[in-house]
Amino acid sequence: MSFKIINKKTITIHEAKEILTKAVEGMDVESDQLLLRTLDYLNKFSKIDGQTARKIVNRLVSEVGLTEEEAVEVVNILPNTVEELRSVTNGWRKMLKTETLDEMLKIISEEIGGNR
């Protein structure tokens, strides 16, 4: 089985799960161990739907000033606390103020509501 690259874009694991699930619908994937492991990983760690994930990414980029890649990294983890968020952002080349981290958590909370 092979897939053709149509375009390249940074996506969240939540979006990847939806795309890959749709792509393999009706296919016999039992013999493709890499594909099965990938789907298993995405099913275990994808906590929200792809549309909500993209909305959070867009808001983090436009309202907080994160890059697309930074926003995707945050959305993949969906931190609950400033401490968790700080551990995600520690590797970045910029220091974020606590107020910025609070705003990021607020955006996540507003978009996913009680779905955590």
- The CATH superfamily name of the largest domain is HRDC domain
CATH C-level class of the largest domain is: Mainly Alpha
Instruction: Quote the beta fraction.
Output: under 5%
| Fraction in helix | 55-70%
Give the domain tally. 2
Shape: elongated
| Subunit arrangement of the protein | single chain
* Average pLDDT figure: 90
Number of helices: 6
Compressed to H and E, one letter per element, the order equals: HHHHHH
CATH architecture of the largest domain: Orthogonal Bundle
Taking Cα atoms only, what radius of gyration do you get, to the nearest Å?
16 Å
Largest sheet: none
Return residue spans where pLDDT drops below 50 for at least 5 consecutive residues. Answer: none
Explain the overall architecture.
With 116 residues, the protein is mainly alpha-helical. The protein is built from 6 helices and no strands. The chain has 2 domains: 13-45, no CATH class; 50-112, Orthogonal Bundle (DNA polymerase, domain 1). The chain has helices at residues 13-24, 33-45, 50-64, 68-77, 82-89, 98-112. Helix 3 packs across helix 4 (68-77). The model has no long low-confidence stretch (mean pLDDT 90).
What is the structure about, briefly put?
The chain is an all-alpha fold. It contains six helices and no strands. It folds into two domains: 13-45, no CATH class; 50-112, HRDC domain (DNA polymerase, domain 1, Orthogonal Bundle).
Notable features of this structure?
mainly alpha, 2 domains, 116 residues, DNA polymerase, domain 1
